């Protein structure tokens, strides 16, 4: 490989790793029939004049496999937290017990499981697009270096192969993560 041009493959891998981390966060918010505190992460409460994450207005616990509880710190916010959960689209019916909001997680029916696997597939496709965009950035850097005379055609092929190998590795990770999540969703 040429001495003049060095592609920052660590940067490409870091950015692609970020796309995978983002995908895992999105997958964590998908309800699989098991209680998880992370399923409440996207829910924002209108508290103190601004949108606030639930974990900043109360303590989120998972006391049993099919129950999430939120111990709201400010009694005046209980109604707002309950409203935010009802309007979140999670399909959970909150039950009040003083300042504690209980969220029983119902069993998923077959239709809902199928919908969730499709949503998981969409999340994975967004991650694949992100990976491909990062790949394109790397390929553009290589082409620019070749056009500027910083590398030979042979070096260009070597670098392009390197970027493609990195891309293939991360796309395979996405596919593996998706397959695991879809299996988890469909498991009864």
TrEMBL record:
It is found in: Cytoplasm. Residues 23-186 form the Ribosome recycling factor domain. It holds the Pfam family RRF. Keywords: Cytoplasm, Protein biosynthesis. It comes from the Bacteria. GO terms for molecular function: ribosomal large subunit binding. CDD domains: RRF (cd00520). GO terms for cellular component: cytosol. InterPro entries: Ribosome_recyc_fac, Ribosome_recyc_fac_dom, RRF_sf. SUPFAM superfamilies: Ribosome recycling factor, RRF. GO terms for biological process: cytoplasmic translational termination. Belongs to the RRF family. Responsible for the release of ribosomes from messenger RNA at the termination of protein biosynthesis. May increase the efficiency of translation by recycling ribosomes from one round of translation to another. This is Ribosome-recycling factor. It comes from Sulfitobacter brevis. The gene is frr.
